[in-house]
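=== RUN LOG ===
request id: a7f3
mode: sequence -> structure
chains: 1
length: 467
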Amino acid sequence: MGKLKITETVLRDAHQSLMATRMTTEQMLPIIDKMDKAGYHAVECWGGATFDASLRFLKEDPWERLRLLRDGFKNTKLQMLFRGQNILGYTHYADDVVEYFVQKSLANGIDIIRIFDCLNDLRNLQTAVNACKKEGGHSQIALSYTLGEAYTLEYWVDVAKRIEDMGADSICIKDMAGLLVPYEAERLVKALKENVSLPIELHTHYTSGVASMSVLKAVEAGVDIVDTAISPLALGTSQPATEVIAETFRGTEYDTGLDLDILAEINEYFTPIREEAIASGLISTKVLGVNINTLRYQVPGGMLSNMVSQLKEQNAEDKFEEVLKEIPRVRKDLGEPPLVTPSSQIVGTQAVLNVLMGERYKVAPKETKGILLGQYGQTVKPFNPEVVDKVLGDEKEKAITCRPADLIEPQLEKLEKEVARYKKQDEDVLTYALFPKQAIDFFEFREAQETGVDPSLADSKIGAYPV
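=== RESULT ===
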């Protein structure tokens, strides 16, 4: 098989998972030269929640961060996470916005775009894949891994074959909840390698405590690339530790080839950043250990903590076990979607409401209605017709079966006009498209910094938004 390739996540998913995506560009830049010499296959450094957090909390231009990272990484591929038709936001955008965002991401320095959809509806990924191919980038489609009656080995193989037919360059097993246990990892990787010719990458989280063992079995089964995080920002809800994985395979046929002396220097650099984040409360000790409830209830750790918060607000913590039993029922009612943003929040909130109201679906948020109306895409299983009738009533006549973005008119021209007053670079229209309010606040902050007209604006805006 040759050497195992490693994608380092410390500049994106690791700090997103452990410290709420608050690492600044200034903290990243001094270590880039060392990271560039470590021997990584790629560094995941952009996308996911980094775009939102940069604007909302750090008052940084995410595009400028990307350009600075690209300038520093001379020998290493840069990778981002892309939410399909949602781009980096939380709703579907028109195809022209998706295409332009892909074009600008690659032009500013991204090499590999990992594209996923919360329902594994490949229709929501095709536009991004086509745009990536057109611009000469590497398009990687992620399988949002989950458990459930519908998610058999045959299901995953079928989706992988369709991904290959779409023209993707590689496939990622995206185990966002840490549900992929070791021997299932072995079975899944073997099945994928036997049925598709694309490289396979494994992305998993340490939340449930099994991730390093799952990596070991996946590597022995033939996985090509593994995501890891340098140890100060590894484990807990983050990835397995880079140094541990490198040392595990050193001297074997899977040797990563990573320079352990350089990894030690990278470790030393991020250690005080971790310590500072713990001291300030940015890293909670709750995310550093093993959450065995992830495997007990097959529910992502983030979804569990969100649910606990909702129950606390209602003084109903005693309903915890009842809500846990309700989650799989709601999930089944809603077509058994993978539990990842935003479907995890939708299922979890609906389960809490069902229990607190004492009647199932007495109250249904617009997001639940959106799932049932097909506004997020196609689920792997049909909806419970009784729930559809109760939640939607006559509204069910408005349900769609087409790709949701087919109903969205081109948006770029309108967005360009709306943001013209603030625009200083082409990318500003994309920032505005995804997060209009945060973008305008940032553009005003940027203007104040440049002109000095109202320097108090800078101080008043930082940290003004709730976490």
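=== NOTES ===
The first helix runs from residue 10 to 19.
The beta strands are 5-8, 42-47, 77-82, 112-115, 138-144, 170-175, 200-204, 225-228.
=== END ===
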